[in-house]
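Hello K.,

You asked for the raw outputs rather than the summary table, so here they are, unedited. I folded two proteins back to back in the same session to keep the settings identical. This is the first:
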Amino acid sequence: MLYGSGRGFMSSTCLGIQNLSVHYGDLQALWDISLSIPTGRIVSIIGANGAGKSTLLKAIAGALPPTSGEIVHDGRTINGFKPYQTLSRGIAMVPEGRRIFPRLTVEENLQVGAYLPRTRKNARQVMEKVYHLFPVLRARARQMGTNLSGGEQQMLAIGRALMSEPTVILFDEISLGLAPRIIKDIYVSLLEINQTGVTMVIVEQDVQRSLKTAEYAYVMQEGRIALEGRPGELTEEAVRKAYFGV
């Protein structure tokens, strides 16, 4: 199978998760999550606040250790990997809230994204690609990150992730706090990035925008997968029930 619960992964699967559980201390945040992310595709994970979406991305990125289950990337189990190890394998993350370095300039923020030995030699060429994708960043290259608008900071966070030359990017709440026009522009840029072959996992609360962009979607509710399917196959009523748990 190409999409679905993650059992019996095909060679086309970039990321596979089987029966993943994650705890914050004594609190269980994820319960037996299984899903499959095909190579080069866009997969959306939607759900209300507290559904476990960000926890799932952090577990994939190595920021949270799984309690049980398995995370597989390109055929290799990456359970217990640290963030720098997952990044070395080509998995980058654009975190919720952007988290740019406020005391660095735009260009310095981008340079930080290319700290891996394999990316340093191509840093200038990749930076030019980022500037082509987001021209406003070139215009503001010498400005401090804190002088950027929220939308520009999101572009910078995406650009920083691209500097690591990833094959997979995890986007956490990419539209949070942004104006509709800016969100539209950023999603256009995401499609451009995806067309270069980058696999994408997009965590969102904006259900309609997410379903219009993704080729497959998972709806999370209280730490579990409540619904999954191709966007065209998911009815509005089914999504609403899964999203709110009603």
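The second followed immediately with the same parameters:
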Amino acid sequence: MNVEVLNTGTELLLGSITNTHLTYFAHALFPLGLRVSRQTTVPDGNAIREALEDAMTRADIILITGGLGPTTDDLTRDMVAESLGIKLLRDPAVVESITQRFAARGLQMMERNLRQAEVPEGAIVLPNPNGTAPGLYVRTIRANRPIHLFLLPGPPRELYPMFEEQVAPILRTLAPGSAPQHCRTFHILGLGESNVEALVGERLLAIPGLELGYCSRPGEVDVRCLGSEEVLEAAEKIVVEALGDRIAARDSVKLEESAVATLTARHQTIATAESCTGGLLAHRITNIPGASAVLVAGYVTYSNEAKSVDLGVNPFLIETHGAVSAETAAAMAEGALRRSGADWALSTTGVAGPGGGTPLKPVGTVYIALAHRGSPTRVESHHFNRDRETFKNLATHAAFDLLRRALGWKG
């Protein structure tokens, strides 16, 4: 079935709020055997009706988000009713639900709040335990073709539970013959998109029934394979054979997740010592549940003095080789290892730019060191001449990859 998403709200087009709904719907629909064919985002007002009319010429299922609130710019209900030529009727059960919600919180209910109880004639109300605006399910016919409209609240904390608990069960009945689809994604580090395709593309395209795609991000390329389990097994064999050492993670797993999982399984710990990445390494690790079992300490030593005071780096070494050098990176990692008592320590030092570079160490230069008890410290240099935020992301990617290779985990 053809599924379209219609996001409403001027704030989305002004950039005031990041629109995350497409990502959510794409992931939630995939196990149901459904995929989003198109997304449209429109401001509040008549554009909603125009976009809806357009979508109904193609779509079987339309997921509409936003515009169900009590204020004058919340017009989704009105636009849908107008487009379908049906009335809006005040639903007593919804009125009671809204009234009780305000009373339970000791808040005064305004008359305008009852706009949220206006339901298109014939619609099914989707209760919203996380807010005052209920969702709505409306069925209509266009050109002898049934169309299913789902009007859903905009805030994710209201939308996501409503979709999972009420919309998904309806969708299963609408598309009972849609087989769940399967996808495997391989995250490749250290190669460009064209290089990856040259290594696997021709052989993968020769597999009948395989849908193949690539997605390139700074420092990483995703190889996305869709198809039956049998088809994906054949695809995986080719990818692993050609890119095995470059596969850092799979599917939705992140590098830092693999790092935490591997260290946890080995009952080992890690510390970080960061200069140019400003704590991003530690931040990425602590985003992962269970990080407290592996991360002992994170040092952000941006100044030369901090490198010496907090990590014990010899000031003469910094003066001789520079703060951005293999020697300083190694000393930072070894200092973090010594001060924290961890089993492993990662360090970063570099020139994020846009100033500060030299002919020998231009902007984008970064040194990454990995220290481990009883082993020689490993140091690598990279050059990522990008904006500061991208530079930091690439540097931490490279640091996790160095750790990955040392620990021997495979994606």
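The mean pLDDT is 94.

Happy to rerun anything if the numbers look odd on your end.

Regards,
P.
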